[in-house]
């Protein structure tokens, strides 16, 4: 495998792994703060990011490269509010999208069409994840500090988590 491509893919492995740990920390915080729907959603997000990481590791190894399991920074243990959690999630996803765009640029520069093709799955995934984070943040801004609204929001997140789990199960079957 082309070394530049291998390095860029391994860099992405680190990003996905770090996303998984970050969302796991958010899940744990939500669970400890009575936000069980949000916790389910975040546990699900964390699993999804682990799936993104595994998909990369398998791709690298199947094409003759060497996947490196990375050390990742420790995520925060506490957060100020639900809104802050989703602001951080969106900010993080934007960074991940930028990194995917860099990977795509490298694929084009190296004329690696198969990795370019593989990376397109991540391009669409990022579009969806950013849109979902923005949608959730819009809702939270509308709710503000209204306790009843936050209760209903958390209940809705449980449904969103169930839907996301079903989508991930389908993706895993397609793989
Ligand atoms: Fe797999 Fe949300 O980045």
Task: Give me a quick take on this structure.
The chain is 82% helix and 0% strand.
So, CATH architecture? Up-down Bundle
Q: Any idea of the CATH topology?
A: Ferritin
How would you classify the helix and strand content by structural class? mainly alpha
Bound molecule types? MU-OXO-diiron
Mean pLDDT: 95
Radius of gyration: 17 Å
Describe this structure in words.
It is elongated, with a radius of gyration of 17 Å. It is built from five helices and no strands. It has one domain: Ferritin, CATH 1.20.1260.10. It is an all-alpha fold and 175 residues long. Residues 16, 19, 49, 52, 93, 96, 129 line the site of MU-OXO-diiron.
Descriptive labels:
175 residues, mainly alpha, Ferritin, 5 helices, elongated, binds MU-OXO-diiron
Q: What is the topological layout?
A:
Layout (H helix, E strand, L loop, with lengths): L2 H30 L3 H27 L19 H28 L3 H31 L3 H28 L1
Helix pairs in contact: 1-2, 1-3, 2-5, 3-4
